[in-house]
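Pasting two entries for a bug report.
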Amino acid sequence: MNEKTIRLGLIGKDVSKSLSEGIHGFILSELGYQCEYERFSVSPDDFDCTIRRLLGDFDGFNVTIPYKRDVMEYLNEIVGDAMTFGAVNTVLSTKKIGYNTDGLGFMLMLRLANIDVEGKRVLVLGAGGAGRSSASALKQAGATVYVYQRRRAELLETCNELGVFAADNPESGGYDVLVNCTGVGMHDTEGRSPVTAKAFVGAKSAVDLIYTPEKTEFLRLAEEEGLSILNGKAMLFYQAYFADCIYFGLEPDDAQAARLYQNYNEQSSK
């Protein structure tokens, strides 16, 4: 067992239902490390104070909705996918370096679920941090990516930066895969979907990055239309695994990540 106990955290608007604490604790325990993990649900007014505390008192921390872009101005360096996506989900506090493991976790989740996106038309709902990282990762994997968001100016800016297409109407159908990267379907919007059943016409798969509840209204509608469905629980685990590898300077291994996730699910079901 490694003697050092690493201090980690999570910051977001509402992380009260997040599984991150248990996931990081499980992964690091399995790898022979120890950690203390603390969650911070903060309003925009409290963001500055909390970020400064995380940078000063913690070894590293994770960032979730809606602060994946806001955190960037506090960091000395943005590297890898974080630079490509324009969003940070993992911070190494000691060096004030921002990373993004969402794309790695997202694509590993799709591969292990046998969802092939190469050459497919994929609609990404949401152009925030999660939407940007998912869209960019999908493009890198060979998909033709369309993004939809109601705020047109932000949508066009995102599409221009990432080199993907803007979707004018998400209800038009004709996509192979739909990915919900909005927060619609959780917390105070639970029971709602960002699209109606019309959006799933012609599609084979629907993915919702939300994992609480396990089956959102978006996934329920998709399943009714005959699509295979997948929530974001595996992605949450895998992006945490890749983040933990950053914290400890470990070389990530897809097979190891898959084994850990299987063990985690087996333990959780007991």
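Entry 2 (this is the one that rendered wrong in the viewer):
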Amino acid sequence: MLVQIAQLFLSLTILITLHEFGHFWFAKRFGCKVEKFYLFFDFLFPFPNIANFALFKKKIGDTEYGLGWFPFGGYVSIAGMVDEQMDKEIIEKPAEPWELRSKPAWQRLLVMMGGILVNFLLGIVIFWMALLVWGKQTLPVTKLPHGLAVDSVAYRLGLRNGDYITSVDGKYVKSINRIPIELIINGGKTIEGVHANGQKFSITVTNDQKGIILKRLKKTGFIAPRILMPSVDSVSKLMYAANADIKSGDLIIKVNEQKITFFDEFQGQLAKNAKGEVNLVILRNADTVKTKCKVNEDGQIGIVVKDRTKIEPVKQSFNVLTALTQGTRDGLEQVAMRGKELALLFTVKDAYKQVGGFSTMAKQMSTTWDWQHFWMFTALLSFGLAFMNFLPIPMLDGGYIMFILFEMITGKKVSDKFIYYANQVGLFIVLALMIFANTDFLRD
């Protein structure tokens, strides 16, 4: 877990620093005085007058650069930017030439758009470089030698182990990773495919069922490639298997007299006997060994397995130009997907309960330091930050953008006092959303 936390911390640090740099760069270009540029907060966020100190600070020109003590985000302080931390007495005074509020609307718009633009462009650059270095791997359903393994949620939908899903709403699915996307995010209503016995099927998925799938997807996939029962790679010394006659290289072929061919069959038997005990028949070299083993409440006995099923993903390579084209296309799709995910909160039953916070994000990081996974996650998070900051909520960049666009369309500038108090309300809304997102463990 520490490795996952460290990766998330680094990812957020990179994204927030570059986001704030976007505001900083445009502000400097338009002659605004930038008073502070801080990584992390030098106060107890969101209370600007509590615990004011920095771990490091250095003033260069008009700007104080520093490292705050509160490791939660960062900020750039632009003179004349009307926000929730501003001394409201200042807004009663006329704007100075170096203040943001004195600049033309189009310049203020670009300053407020700066962070969003940087996050969007950064996501595309990361996708571009990742495609260039690692290419793209997909796992077509046709490449699965034993079809799909389905969990209890998928089973209740009507799917079965060994199924091949070929399309969603008649649209061919190129990769199994696209199935949840087409079904949940893109609003698919029907899953089509072929059962292991060759019989075709068409399953309708309701919005209520999508809510159940969403809950499952937060922790694990509801479908996965079906694999043969793996051999035992190692045995945990802290689990029940350590007290049973199970050794590295063993192949479990029966559980409670039930023949085991596939891994999902083994997992199903353990789940049925959670908190109980199972009789195992093991193939050890040329010998057959019988033993008993207790099962914990999560349906596990404590073995690490070695896969015996060869599944060859399709790898696509890119040159500089094609990687940029595909990266841009993927980036635009990600932004569109964030909008569709927002819509899900209002269209799919209990979807709002699946909103997660920092803990959920940390769990999505690799348990080992994996640079490919790290950069791909950072790109996805960058698109997410760009989208969230564009929402028209006061205090967020999108709130300022909303007021400036109103001014540009109507010719009437929203008063600084109104923006100040709107930001106070926006701060409350944002804090409430953050608290809700980061207490997702209470909803689980």
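Dev reply: Rendering is fixed now. As a check, the viewer should reflect this: The CA atoms of residues 84 and 421 lie 7 Å apart.
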